[in-house]
Protein: Putative membrane protein related to bactofilin
Amino acid sequence: MKRQQAVSGGLVLLVAIAVVAGAFTGVAAAETRTGGTVVVEEGETIDGLSTFSGTVIVRGTVDGNLDGVAGTVVIEESGVVTGNLAVTAGSITVAGEVNGNVDVAGGSLTLAPTGVVDGDLNAGVGSIRLAGTVGGDAMLGGDSITLAETASVGGHVRYAENADFTDEGATVDGSVSADPDIGSGGFDLPDVPGWLFTGYAILVNLVLGAALLVAMPGFSRRVDETVSTEAAKSAGVGVLAALGIPIGLVVLAVTIVGIPLTLAGFVAFALLAWVALLYGRIAVAAWALRQADIDNRWLALVAGIVGFGVLGRIPILGGLLSLATFLLGLGAIALVLVELRRGDGDSDESEPAAEPPIEPDDSDAGAI
Structure:
């Protein structure tokens, strides 16, 4: 079961990588559209399409690849994609024609009786129903897979071994077989000792922590001081930020251009969370060392990262310590940023402009 779950996750990962790679490599040449609903009308032709939207409907022609992220993607009977279709979506329906390959990940995939895929079809979704034509091979990862009587596959059909598979009499030129290396996703990973992951994580955190101390010594010092002198306030602000930022990003997603901004926001928040965790660990270690009359930021870096990294292996306690240091670090970062903003705003008013020196009056000198 664990192997099948790992395999299942792998196919989704591979398909998702193909989707993301397609989106970034094609964005320079393709037209980019975002919003609640993106429609290519019948009779309309566009040169490729990259999209982040709620719904994508193709009734016309996409001359090139169609890739992106959406809630629903529909290629209607009149719709044509001359290149590849690579999308991640909750629901994907192909009733028209795709001249290239189809690589999809998401909730469900339906290839209607009128749907045609000239190339290969690779899917990592929850449910799949093929009733149309696939010119190449079909690699199907999902919990429920159905080959309808009207389906036609020019190559081989490989499906997840643990899937609920139904063949209603489809025409398949190649073989139809269950593949243990396909699930709702990709390939099984070898067992790696937990201590190896811990050691690697400690090494990476040490490198990033050192980079923060070198690149931003002043900011790092202020975060350290804030955690030491205002620990309760830092933790409280950290809780508010940890809850408020994700909620704000989710709310942003429902706006017209919110999906791409939300995706970028979650990536930025993930990086911020990592930095906050490191700052929290370093600051707590620095405070502990100062209780022993030791004030050395590099020793605090090593003690904080290594110490909390090892303690993190302890069940329950490790998770609680990580949460505490994350909230302390996040709150301290927020407080320091607010202080810096206020300081920048007051600096112009706190320093009056210097008056020009008084030049001696030549006439007075002559009089003397």
Q: What stands out?
A: DSSP finds eight helices and 19 strands in the chain. The longest strand covers residues 31-40. The first helix runs from residue 2 to 26. Helices lie at 2-26, 194-215, 217-229, 231-253, 258-290, 297-311, 317-350, 362-367.
